Amino acid sequence: MAGSDIVLSVEQLRKTFVKPFTGRKVEAVKGISLEVERGDIFGFLGPNGAGKTTTIKMLTGLITPTSGRATILGEEVPSPEAMGKVGFLPENPYVYQYLTPREFVSLCGRLNGMGGASLAKAVERVIERVGIAYAIDRPVRALSKGMLQRTGFAAALVHSPDLLILDEPMSGLDPVGRKEVRDLIVEEARAGRTVFFSSHILSDVELLCKRVCILRKGEVVAGGTIQSLLGTDVRKSEITLRDVADDIATTLAGLASKSERVGTTMVLEAQGDEAVKEILERALAGRAHVEAVTPKRETLEDIFVRKAL
Ligand SMILES: Nc1ncnc2c1ncn2[C@@H]1O[C@H](COP(=O)(O)OP(=O)(O)OP(=O)(O)O)[C@@H](O)[C@H]1O
């Protein structure tokens, strides 16, 4: 792939915190590497404490890595050139209570070197884009959590960044708020922006992302396209049998990864085609009746639970 198609490149990034007073070391991120391509919506997943926020803080220049490097469109993080290409939405965006969305987003624009009439226009455009134009001049303290999140989103967009980095953008929102933020992410990706976001809401990730990376205790434990992650794992099937005689029930249960028997009906879970074949052969030989064989597709959640917990 041409270098210009990689928007975010992370190489062996590591962060070790040293606790004050005790001097105890916490290896929050242990040398992770990943690449995000232009136009991707990339999901950065992991359970609590996996190191997602620490990584995002390094990518946005808020903390310095212990070692390793990251580049954004070829510019070294945290240079002003790299940071100018990034729009960042923190997990719980803090917005000064007495400012209005217009004032807050303008402030963020000015911090990104914008000013004058073009800033005023950009502020109105992004606030309209995130759907809170009606509240543009209300003090932030009067806004709901969802509206605050949108104000933060508008602030991340005001300088038209190439890359959006969003830390848990859907967390704490109700289902409607979550859908609205998902729609915003999709619209921004369609408009040509690359989106990198952390989340542990896997259904949202499955809906939005083509590629993901799963972090566990500071290390990447799985990564790639969702399709490849779901595709390479062992296929499971569920087999439902009727009229299973006692003498073959134990044998069948031994061939399955899970089994349940109610009366003469048995439901078995088989891993892989070989196990399915053997169970069916033994069941038919024992005069059981095969009611159904259903392939069970692994979900992202199954993979997450298996790899990350
Ligand atoms: N400033 C700090 N000093 C010491 N340890 C820290 C510091 N910041 C984070 N950690 C530790 O680093 C590890 C990773 O934390 P991090 O916040 O990056 O995880 P996370 O994946 O974002 O989790 P969550 O989903 O809960 O936000 C945790 O063990 C955390 O306690």
From TrEMBL:
Residues 8-242 form the ABC transporter domain. PROSITE patterns: ABC_TRANSPORTER_2. One of its GO terms (molecular function) is ATP binding. Keywords: ATP-binding, Nucleotide-binding, Transport. It holds the Pfam family ABC_tran. Gene3D superfamilies: P-loop containing nucleotide triphosphate hydrolases. SUPFAM superfamilies: P-loop containing nucleoside triphosphate hydrolases (SSF52540). Belongs to the ABC transporter superfamily. This is ABC transporter ATP-binding protein.
